[in-house]
Amino acid sequence: MPKPSEKPRNTPRQVLFASLVGTTVEFFDFYIYATAAVIVFPLLFFPAGDATAATLQSLATFAIAFIARPIGSALFGHFGDRIGRKTTLVLALSTMGLSTVAVGVLPTYKMVGVAAPLLLALCRFGQGIGLGGEWGGAVLLATENAPPGKRAWYGMFPQLGAPIGFFFSSAIFLLLSNVLTPAQFLSFGWRLPFLASGVLVLLGLYVRLTITETPVFAASLARKEPVKVPIFAVIRNHFGALVAGTLTCLATFVLFYLMIVFTLTWATTALHYPKTTFLEMQLVGVIFFALTIPAAAVLAERGRKPVMIAISVGIAIFGLFFSTMFQAGHAGALAMLIVGLSLMGLTYGPLGTVLSELFPTPVRYTGSSLAFSIAGILGASLTPYIATKLATVYGLQYVGYYLSAAAVLTICGLLAIRETSKDDLAAATVIDAPVEGLG
């Protein structure tokens, strides 16, 4: 029985909404930058002249956030494993929000010269720091509050923040492109989504402040389990889980940033699609992304590994047909986006739960966040850049081969982990057991 002075445990509705709303805000912020990096920043924050060079430079600033993510994972993971999930989630969301709003008030290259891309890169770095701490904490908020047999279902809710955030970010850019003239959009319209994110951040903070600490972490704290420096404990005692978790995420990152960033870049340049037309096509694909996330979570309740391996095989096969579909006119490109983003939802839905189950409570925030963030560097940070180079130099089919190779590496990671669906997240023993042959 809880003592009268104790706060009541979070209700399922509180947990699921708090985990969803935060990641929705985070991914909205992240994706408005990704969209602007393709259609706005090359024109406003870099020297005029070579359009391809400006686009590549803009995509390079996009990559900075993925370099910053592991730093954010280590920083916020330290406090999340030491003092609690709730406080850390509030700090991570605040960091992301402030960095995003700052982008909306930055001076352009014409105003301040080379300082403009430097300031843009600094804000992007702040976004990466915040997201490095946000994602892992949101997943743990869900999974550490989940009843038995429902961890994959609960862990799916923060994952839904990705398609919802992307849908709203693309929709607002599409709306602004339609209601404003091109001159107005480049003058001030592109800034509005970044400034509006401040309101969304305040909503997310309010929701996060109403929740209590997860029962799993509270029990670990009561047992005095927290370690002094979680990142050292992860590297020393759980390095195998870290490697396997990173590989497990790899295909997910490559697939998503091909579908969202590279395809938009290539379609609006090499294939000559109007910007608004392809954004509309992406929005259709994102609906399938959202719908397949809960479907995968339901399947994964029966076993994580078989589901994730089967989906990764599907991604590898899809990579072989990627270029053919993309170049087969509007219908083919739309089918490519629907299939690719459906596979994305299937692999992304159980991913947070799988990573959280690889690490014991005292290092779970740090370990799962680091695996996700390191995979972001390897599988997402340079993916738009690498894909653009491959398509330009060798042909679009090599972009598909790149995706298939990433899927093969992910299958290797999945084969190395053991099935974790029956594990007890609240187990007191700190072990490095989630990997077979890697620990």
UniProtKB/TrEMBL annotation:
Record-level Gene Ontology MF annotations: transmembrane transporter activity
Key word Cytoplasm present: no
Pfam families: Sugar_tr (PF00083)
Domain of life according to the entry: Bacteria
Chain ranges of the Major facilitator superfamily (MFS) profile domain: 15-422
Record-linked Gene3D superfamilies: MFS general substrate transporter like domains
Localization annotation: Cell membrane
Keyword entries, A-Z: Cell membrane, Membrane, Transmembrane, Transmembrane helix, Transport
GO cellular component: plasma membrane
Topology in membrane: Multi-pass membrane protein
Transmembrane segments: 30-48, 54-77, 89-109, 115-141, 153-176, 188-207, 239-262, 282-300, 307-326, 332-355, 367-387, 399-417
PANTHER family linked: INNER MEMBRANE METABOLITE TRANSPORT PROTEIN YHJE, SHIKIMATE TRANSPORTER
Name the UniProt record assigns to this protein: Arabinose efflux permease family protein
